[in-house]
Amino acid sequence: MNMVRNHVLISIDANTIIAGARAVEDALIKEIARQGLSQEIVVLETGSVGIEDQGVVLVVYPEGIYYTNITPAEVPELVEEHLLKGRVVHRLMLKETPKRFVITKEKTGLMKEQPRIVLKNCGFINPESIDEAIAADGYQAAAKALSSMKPDEIIAEVKHAGLTGRGGAAFPTGLKWEFASKVDNPVKYIVCNADEGEPGTFKDRLILEGDPHKLIESMIIGGYATGATKGFVYIRGEYELSIERLEKAIADARSYGLLGTNIFDSGFDFDITVMKGAGAYVCGEETALIESIEGKRGHPRNKPPYPITAGLWGKPTIVNNVETLSNIPEIILKGAENFKKYGTEKCSGTKVYTILGHVATPGLIETEMGTTLRDIIFEYGGGIKDGKRFKCALVGGAAGAFLGPDMLDVKMDFVNLREYAAALGSGAILVMDEDTDIVDMLKSVLHFFKHESCGHCVPCRLGTARLVELIDRIAASKGTSKDVEGLTRISETMKDTSFCPLGQSLILPVSSSLKYFKDEILARVQ
Amino acid sequence: MNLEDLKKIREKAEKDIELRQKKTRIKIVVGMGTSGIAAGAREVLKTFVEEISNRNLLDVVVTQTGEKGLASQEPMIEIFEEGKPVIVYGNIDKKKAQGIVENHIVGGRPVMEYVIEAK
Amino acid sequence: MYKETILKKFEPRLDNILYILHELQDNNEQHYVSKEDLKLCADYLSVPYSFVHGVATFYTMFSLTPRGRNIIRLCDSPPCHLMGSGSLLDYLKNKLKIDVGETTKDGVFTLELTSCLGVCGVAPALMMNNATIGKLTPEKVDAILEERRKSL
Ligand SMILES: Cc1cc2nc3c(=O)[nH]c(=O)nc-3n(C[C@H](O)[C@H](O)[C@H](O)COP(=O)(O)O)c2cc1C
Ligand code: FES
Q1: Is the pLDDT of residue A218 over 90?
Q2: Domain A350-433 maps to which CATH number in 3.10.20.600, 1.10.530.10, 3.90.228.20, 3.40.1010.10?
Q3: Mutate which: A147, A361, A366, vs B, most B CBs within 10 A
Q4: Does domain A438-522 have CATH number 1.20.1440.230?
Q5: pTM as predicted
């Protein structure tokens, strides 16, 4: 075993990096090696040590000596004198040691390192330049797939990777593709679901706006694997910029011959059309979405038949979410085994989460499946705003569940959350602090559902209206405990009798809020 | 399009990017996703373009990218400069953008007050 | 007439109906789809008037009644609600002296509510015509209204 004699902490934050901390770090490591001290002395990066405007800062342990304004020129002297001979270099030393030694963790909040697969290029490349996309590995996976892989090899790879749908239902993507490829029909369609209506979700928009070529590439691969030669991307009408950027990307891809006929000399033809929605949450449901593309009211269809056998215009249709598809290039390029390194046993890969509400740094992250709610809120989200306490989080969008403190350490993936009567859904995480009025939040959720119920089936149409009446009464302190019971009763009935998951899923927010906050809700009624 | 074509396009794209980098001393990248735009990124982009052209800074380019996910810091910009750390600024508005051009782009001193990350 | 030109941009296929309705509405000075528009669309696509009416009423982005020159769509989904969209709604109602779904007397603004706009990271948010604006405060709302009034 090696004896570590000294630790040298080098402060890495915006101030010190600008002052040249990286160069000092390099010089330090080299010099330590040159003196043959690499076994005894460890250089560690740390965050801000609370000393500002003093250039690059080093702290040598165990002595706890601070050196400031260090440049690479001073490094040899420091190493020789202090680390080799044990003599403090007074000239460079900070005379007054700070009273409180604060190490803020390196890169906390949303700056924390994230394993980015689907968002790799978002925020780095110019989304309106196909050349930049290509320089950043764009279309390499499509090239590989179309020129050197057979459709069933691609499907096998996707299956092996264990990719599941990120649109909410978590159906295995490889299996969906396999079913589709086996259906015998000369005309098949692949549809990308970019309706993204779940409140608190904007992950698909980031991909559409930030890296549209990744989606095009993924659809080419999906089309080739399943035998679909025509793709549709259904984007909600409010996403003006997404529509604009994707349309430009499609036009550019066509002019490069990446869409059209005989792509990569494979004999495979493929093209994509963008469809613009017009404001209806239910159109995110795949059969309603298909109705809407056909130009009708977006009412969900009876299942079966599933879209895989009879979808758009009665033809076999594969419907996949934007985030789901955006995983494909990585799987093809680097292989299923590599993909499975991320995530949990049952759900491999990463998940994109939106962290919203009362957190210090709201925004969006991509992290491994299985990350706990605690890590997401406190590591990435920077903790609760204004030093308040955590009350609960609404996880999975409006159709998700309120999760209290006891759920903070549960590993979150699609399968695991189901065991706790919760759902990962779209990955939206709305964090509420101790001062949040839960009745008011539940009211907002129920109003959302009333507004978005499509009116097709009676339980959902009447149920949402009734629920809103009840919660409005409770919120106005005019309700009774009967009204509170009514919330559960109605949403349970809706769960059993509604036509589509929209009405069926209301039970989640209702029962979970009652589970945690029944007293708070009852305190509002007579 | 065949494999050879893609390779050629990629090589050319890489070369173009490199060439552009040689000619430019500083690259200013503005985050232009909807969150950024909703928080005022268009005006920030406009301010940079105006300031750069008013001062006739031929070796500075202004370009755009999508959203990174740090919504609370929008509008966000990054400054790339050869041999120096990348500086990320957050919560930028027109006035701050002018200050950045004046002090950082022209004067070479990053405006620490608005820096949220350096890498 | 401009409506003809809009129709001619699209093939007379049913799957173009949303695009056609969007364009008709966007180009209408009162930002709505009129009965005449519905009729034109129905004839062009060779479907019954009632069908087009059914589609247009299903989607919340379409209005069948005339609206003001500027349409304010304030998001009231849970994330924006949590960050204070409720009090902004009261502020807007007071300031414009109208209720949700109404148009100001001078016809400059129509106030509507919308579900999540997908910019919840900068909540609370609204859409002013086609532009999404976030990190709203009463002062910012004032500035936006002022800017719109000036551009009349
Ligand atoms: C009411 C409702 C809304 C939905 N909204 C969306 C949506 O906005 N985006 C999405 O990808 N899937 C949505 N889904 C799920 C789709 O029906 C479908 O499962 C998904 O697009 C399949 O893609 P995936 O396997 O890649 O997840 C919704 C489902 C329901 C019931
Ligand atoms: S909830 Fe308002 S933009 Fe998402």
Answers
A1: yes
A2: 3.10.20.600
A3: A361
A4: yes
A5: 0.89
